[in-house]
DNA sequence: AAATTAGTCAACCGCTTCATT
DNA sequence: CAATGAAGCGGTTGACTAATT
């Protein structure tokens, strides 16, 4: 007898997970008018934890111990099968969440530093509510923790300052938007898109490096034999293990050293360098790099081609520096503030002006103005944030 | 001291994305 | 290319605690 599946929303069948089939209750089966078939009316996916006997809610220390012991011994492997093997009355998803948000050994807990607050605010302005991407730039903080901190602290703080936490604009600025400003807004949006794309790629890079680090951690610290299902890194990119490879192919990840092989991921190509100089790896892939990546990096690292070449990896090192106060506070933060532009304009390497920079075809005049405007904007925010938390009481 | 309100954050839910077959 | 399994992600909830009335 055929079984038809009807979703509440037409056209959503593609997204339906087969879990529905095993979770759907026989009680909601209905016979169709002709009685020729059963029609299953899907009322929404049943949560995996609804299965009989599975516990929900806060974890007990005993459960934590079981989960920790199992993962240290065997790695997590398949989360779905883990609870049974570990002797836990939990669904795999719950176990994964508990591990990633609480039990993982590389998690830092406690108060956020001012540097971390700054980073969150700045990244949020660029990325929006993409917490996992933001979390990759805050070593040892989980996306969940950052999200909670944003919703309970930072958002309110910005609101009290009269800054819209969504647009990161002052309310007055939003109200008095003129033609010029809307043009700037368009530029800003444009820039944000590129930055967003770049940061997304960075996030991926950081995630990959974190995986490698975890694998390294398990191999060295746990020193266990047998299958290492946890942290198994499966990817088509040509990564090598930490501490292999040579010299300039090494990058500092948030928690470990990551090495690349010859077929470098596009993140570390010498971006911003004229095409002729790009193929130093005898690898023509670089010329096929998406233009957006090239633009994003050239606009955010330096407007001076020679500087880009000289420091082509610096921004990655800054972002991935294991020390948040150095890497994020000075590196990425200043990068976001447009410091790099300012630096390149003021150092002896190039006495460029806005127009000459724009003329070089790397940063347009409007983009330069964008940097200047937003530099001021960010400085004003950071000055306020810097004065917290002690000053915040008086301020608010 | 009890009741109420507000703040915090761990955990859940449902959707999307990715990898594999 | 579609189906499937698994994990990732962001929004939301609700239990717990602290502050206030």
Automatic annotation (TrEMBL):
UniProt domain HTH myb-type: residue ranges: 51-103, 104-158
Compartmental location: Nucleus
Alphabetized Pfam families for the sequence: Myb_DNA-binding (PF00249)
Myb-like domain boundaries: 51-103, 104-154
Domain of life: Eukaryota
Record GO biological process: cell morphogenesis; regulation of cutin biosynthetic process
One function term, GO molecular function aspect: DNA binding
InterPro entries listed in its UniProt record: Homeodomain-like_sf, Myb_dom, Myb_TF_plants, SANT/Myb
GO CC annotation: nucleus
SUPFAM superfamilies assigned to the protein according to its UniProt record, in alphabetical order: Homeodomain-like
Keyword field: Developmental protein, DNA-binding, Nucleus, Repeat, Transcription, Transcription regulation
Keyword flag Nucleus: yes
Protein name as catalogued: Uncharacterized protein
Origin species: Capsella rubella
């Amino acid at each position: 007898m055929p079984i038809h599946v009807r979703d509440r929303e037409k056209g959503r069948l593609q997204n339906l997970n087969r879990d529905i089939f095993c979770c759907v209750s026989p009680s909601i089966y209905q016979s169709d008018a002709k009685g020729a078939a059963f029609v299953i009316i899907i009322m929404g996916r049943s949560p995996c934890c609804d299965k009989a006997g599975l516990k929900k809610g806060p974890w007990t220390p005993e459960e934590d111990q079981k989960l920790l012991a199992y993962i240290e011994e065997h790695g997590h492997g398949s989360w779905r099968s883990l609870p049974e093997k570990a002797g836990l009355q939990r669904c795999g998803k719950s176990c994964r969440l508990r591990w990633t948000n609480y039990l993982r050994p590389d998690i830092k807990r406690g108060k956020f530093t001012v540097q971390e607050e700054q980073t969150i605010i700045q990244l949020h302005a660029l990325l929006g509510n993409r917490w996992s991407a933001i979390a990759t730039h805050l070593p040892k903080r989980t996306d969940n923790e950052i999200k909670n901190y944003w919703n309970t602290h930072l958002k309110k703080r910005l609101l009290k300052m009269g800054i819209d936490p969504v647009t990161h604009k002052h309310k007055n600025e939003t109200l008095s938007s003129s033609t010029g400003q809307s043009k700037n807004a368009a530029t800003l949006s444009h820039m944000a898109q590129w930055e967003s794309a770049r940061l997304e790629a960075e996030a991926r890079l950081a995630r990959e490096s974190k995986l490698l680090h975890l694998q390294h951690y398990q191999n060295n610290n746990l020193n266990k034999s047998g299958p290492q299902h946890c942290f198994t890194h499966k990817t088509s990119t040509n990564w090598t293990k930490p501490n292999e490879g040579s010299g300039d192919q090494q990058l500092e990840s948030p928690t470990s050293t990551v090495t690349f092989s010859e077929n470098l991921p596009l993140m570390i190509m010498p971006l911003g360098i004229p095409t002729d100089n790009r193929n130093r790896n005898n690898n023509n892939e670089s010329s096929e790099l998406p233009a957006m990546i090239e633009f994003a990096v050239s606009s955010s690292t330096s407007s001076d081609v020679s500087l880009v070449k000289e420091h082509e990896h610096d921004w990655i090192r800054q972002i991935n520096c294991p020390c948040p106060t150095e890497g994020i506070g000075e590196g990425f933060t200043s990068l976001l503030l447009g410091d790099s532009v300012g630096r390149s304009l003021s150092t002896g390497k190039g006495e460029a002006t806005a127009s000459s920079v724009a003329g070089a075809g790397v940063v347009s005049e409007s983009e330069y103005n964008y940097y200047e405007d937003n530099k001021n904007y960010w400085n004003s925010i950071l000055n306020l944030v810097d004065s917290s938390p002690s000053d915040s009481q008086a301020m608010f």
